[in-house]
Design goal:
Blueprint: H1 2-12, E1 43-73, E2 79-113, E3 119-129, E4 132-142, E5 152-154, E6 159-168, H2 170-175, H3 179-187
Parallel strand pairs: 1-5
Antiparallel strand pairs: 1-2, 2-3, 3-4, 4-6
Amino acid sequence: MKRIYLALLLGLIPLTAAAGGLYNADTFTPLASDIRSFRVGDAITIMIVEASSAQSQADTSADRETNVTAGVTTVHMKQTNLGLDLKRHNGGQAATTRAGQLQAEISVRIQQVAANGDLIVRGSQKILINGEEQRISLAGIVRPIDVSADNVVLSTRLTDSEIEYSGKGFVSRNQEESWISRLFGFLGF
C-alpha cells in the first residue's frame, strides 16, 4: 500500500527535464592546451627590449677662383701689368650620432581582436620613486603565434608599435634648458 501511495504522490509532482551540455564555446579550454587566452580584456606581458642607433655624416667643399690680368704699355715703352685675383673657398663638415636603449617589462590588455586573429593591445605603467614619476606606455598589434607559453611577447615582434617612456620630477626638471640659456641660443650667443 505504501508503494501505491508513493507512486501516486510522485505522479502528482511535475517532473521537468532540462537538456543541457557541459560544453560552452566561450569558456572551453581543452585539457591538453596552454592556459593562454586571447579575448578582449585579457592581459599579455610585453618584454620591451629596444635598442636603436643612427649616424649621419656630411662633408662639403667648394672652391672658386677668378683671375683677371691686363697689360698696359705706356709712352716710354714700359709695360705695366695689372691683375685681380678672386678666390673663394667654402667648406663644411657635420656629423650626428644618436643612440638609445630601453629595457622594461609591462603587462597590457587586449583591446580588440582583429578579423585575422591579431590582437590589438594597449597599456601603461606608472612608477613613482622618491618623487620622480616614470611612465611607460605601449600600444601595438600582436600575432597570437608570437605569444610564448608564458604569455610573453618581445616588443620587437609588435607591429605598428608605439612605445613611450617619459618622466616628471626633480631629475627631468634639471635636464631642461633654462629660459635664459634658450634666449641666448635664440640670439646666437
